[in-house]
Structure formats: C-alpha cells, structure tokens
Write a structure and sequence with these properties.
Elements (H helix, E strand, L loop, with lengths): L8 H24 L4 H9 L1 E9 L2 E4 L2 H10 E8 L3 E2 L5 E11 L4 E12 L5 E8 L13
Parallel strand pairs: 1-7
Antiparallel strand pairs: 1-2, 3-5, 4-5, 5-6, 6-7
Length: 144
C-alpha cells in the first residue's frame, strides 16, 4: 500500500497515470480555451465547482472566475511543462514556463510551478500556481 495516498500499488499506479494524463490535458485545454468554446467547457469540467485556486498565496473558490479574469487581461498564451510528479502528500507538482500576449499587446514570459490535488472522481479540487515572480497575479487578486 502507498502510505502517502492510502491506495494499493496496482490501483494507485493506474490512478496516478490517469490523473497525470488529466493534468497534462489541463495545460493543453487552457491554451486552447481562448478560441475554442469546447476546449473551455472541457477545461472547466476538469475542476470541481468549488475547487480552491491559490494565486500569489490568495485563495479563491472556483476555476471559471479565474479563467474569465485571465482572458480579460490576456490575448494568447502557450504553456510548456515538465512531467507531473506525485508527491508524498498525494498532490501532484510540475514546473512550467509560459509565454503570452497581454490584452494591451505586450508579450511576456514567466516560470513557476503548479501544485494540484485531485479528488477520487479525477477532478482537480485544489490548484496552486506558484510563480517565480511573486507579484505576477496581483491583478487577479480580487476576481470572482
């Protein structure tokens, strides 16, 4: 038995692989969601309705509000990421890099890590975005 997750190894390995595939889809769908309504629907379906989203240490409930705020400030985005790794506490973590174009036309590049927790149904119930620039999400501090 995996003591970190309380799951027997054979089932845990399958769940881990399924969760990692879903988390990879999170980044792919995030990038596509700007112009593809189906991608946005699929992206939102990866999250519980009451998912805790943590940006710059500030906790918010629900992912849809963040996405609406994000695309108010950004025209386009492209993520690259390392493999998601199951942590001893049962969460998943990856390092990422992103390039994008803000709504005002300026371009940017950022790096950081994501920490995700997935429920038994395979949905993201917690996502923490930790950016190398601790003020990177300051404009999203009050989205709802």
């Amino acid at each position: 038995m995996n003591t970190a997750t309380g799951i027997h190894n054979s089932t845990g390995a399958i769940n881990t692989a399924v969760n990692i595939t879903m988390l990879n889809n999170y980044f792919r769908l995030f990038d596509a969601s700007r112009t593809d309504k189906r991608a946005m629907q699929d992206l939102l379906s990866l999250f519980t309705l009451d998912a805790e989203i943590v940006l710059n240490g500030n906790s918010h409930t629900g992912f849809e509000g963040f996405m609406k705020a994000f695309y108010e400030y950004n025209q386009d985005i492209k993520h690259m990421w390392d493999a998601w790794v199951l942590q001893p506490d049962g969460s998943y973590q990856t390092n990422w890099a992103v390039c994008g174009q803000a709504a005002d036309g300026t371009v940017y590049a950022k790096v950081g890590k994501d920490i995700a927790r997935v429920n038994d149904e395979g949905q993201i119930m917690y996502l923490e975005n930790v950016q190398a620039d601790e003020n990177a999400f300051s404009k999203y501090s009050s989205y709802e």
